[in-house]
Amino acid sequence: MICSFCPRKLDFDPLAVPIPYHHSNLQSEEMIYYVSGNFGSRKGVEVGSITLHPSGLPHGPQPGLAEKAIGLHETHELAVMCDTFHPLRLTAFARDLDDGTYWRSWYANAQDGDAAEGADASGAGLTSHL
Ligand SMILES: [Fe+2]
């Protein structure tokens, strides 16, 4: 399944949180390529990033982003998502592209390059910068 995230108006209800909520894809893998714009519902991505959320991995706005989004009325992000209905297997080349930081972006106190003590990165997402 291919989805395009294009510049658009956001939910305008004054009590709305206008960015995607936390969720898990239970029977698909989710790969997103970030083309242009500012990705308000994500930390740790930039133009040219690719993220992979494996099947079953809960994901959504990182700490603070839902609050920061309140009052936004539009987004200018452009990204393409590919959801597969069979597991993706990373090639050695794809593994080498992993910058090793995206999975840490959900830790509230994470700093650039600051790993959570004892945390395990296996299967927790991938960000690549092409
Ligand atoms: Fe998702």
Explain what you see.
This protein is mostly beta strands and 130 residues long. The protein has a single domain, classed as Sandwich (Jelly Rolls). 8% of the residues lie in helices and 25% in strands. The chain contains 2 helices and 7 strands, in the order E-E-E-E-H-E-E-H-E. It has helices spanning 65-69, 92-97; strands at 2-5, 8-9, 29-36, 49-53, 74-75, 78-84, 126-129. A 5-stranded antiparallel beta sheet has the order 1-6-3-4-7, with no helix packed on it. Strands 2-5 form a two-stranded antiparallel ribbon. The two termini are 23 Å apart. Mean pLDDT is 83; it is low at 112-125. The chain binds fe (ii) ion.
- β-sheet strand percentage: 15-25%
Helix-residue proportion: under 10%
Radius of gyration: 15 Å
Average pLDDT, to the nearest integer?
83
Strand line-up of the largest beta sheet:
1-6-3-4-7
Secondary-structure arrangement, i.e. CATH architecture:
Sandwich
Ligands, deduplicated: fe (ii) ion
Low-confidence stretches: 112-125
Shape: globular
CATH superfamily: Jelly Rolls
Secondary structure tally: strands = 7
The CATH class designation is Mainly Beta
Name the helix and strand elements from N-terminus to C-terminus, one letter apiece.
Answer: EEEEHEEHE
**Class by alpha and beta content:** mainly beta
Kindly report how far apart the N and C termini lie: 23 Å
Number of domains: 1
Report the biggest beta sheet as strand number plus sense, adding barrel if it closes: 5 strands, antiparallel
